[in-house]
């Protein structure tokens, strides 16, 4: 049996308060299912015959299976064989984490993830060294890059089948590790923000007057969210060593005020006091005595002065499918031409 690819499609991503205060779009279930069908068709075109998906109660599964059945009834062979994991469905982030854990144990070659930063974080916590290919279907999507899902599916398929050497196909990624007292450590893929709110409340960040400290794995001026703040100060690439720390303050008292896109259609003033680069492996301790910690744009943890808090950047923490590199390699070596030979052995 050939390689198996996993698909984790979150049916409830992109339903936070930023949908109300900004002008973000919202993908319907049928739209998410159509994305999955495009990915499946691309995987099949690369020779992937088996795909395992996360079950959910949002309706994606029904739309996808009807699309596959309709294609087969028309005599087409556009899609691989799709099965679903045998697992309970809770409708929470635990579903994505559990699915990633099961796929890791099953030895899938790659996992395609549909969701926002939070969904990808849940998957990364449990997928080990299995590479992921992200597709943006959330609100603030700094981690999954925006591109046509068909291309992501092609890249995942070419990487999973070994037709592109691992040194080209996969990229290493940084991660932020957050320790609060004796609690289990948490992670963030893009940013960790410390805010003055002494309650969790609405999880998504959008009130900039509460922002105090920001830590990012990369700083990109082309993304939306907290990483955009750092990116508009001093860009730091995804593949570049180290991250960045930014000291924030209310705009009325800050040394510098920056206009930053913290949500789709929401460009607001953000007060900046200072910033510095953040090398890997060195714990940073926030100055804020009490408040809450937001992981990848969503408040997750409340803390007070009785608990020690630290943020540490970890290099080479997990792997992703390097879509641009895979597609460039495929073009250069003719991998999608009729009769193209498998190059895994010759080019590894």
In short:
The protein contains ten helices and 15 strands. It is an alpha/beta fold.
Can you walk through the features of this model?
This protein has about 350 residues and is an alpha/beta fold. It contains ten helices and 15 strands. Helix 2 packs parallel to helix 6 (about 150-160).
Give a quick account of the main beta sheet: strands, pairing sense, barrel closure: 7 strands, antiparallel
| Gyration radius over CA | 21 Å
Order of strands, widest sheet: 11-12-10-9-8-13-14
* Number of helices in the DSSP assignment: 10
Proportion of beta-strand residues: 25-35%
Q: Quaternary state, please? A: single chain
- SSE class: alpha/beta
Helices, strands, pairings?
Elements: E1 4-9, H1 18-21, H2 29-45, E2 50-53, H3 60-73, E3 81-84, H4 93-106, E4 110-115, H5 117-124, E5 132-136, H6 149-160, H7 166-169, E6 170-180, E7 186-188, E8 191-195, E9 211-216, H8 226-231, E10 243-249, E11 256-263, E12 266-278, E13 291-295, E14 298-303, E15 309-321, H9 323-333, H10 344-347
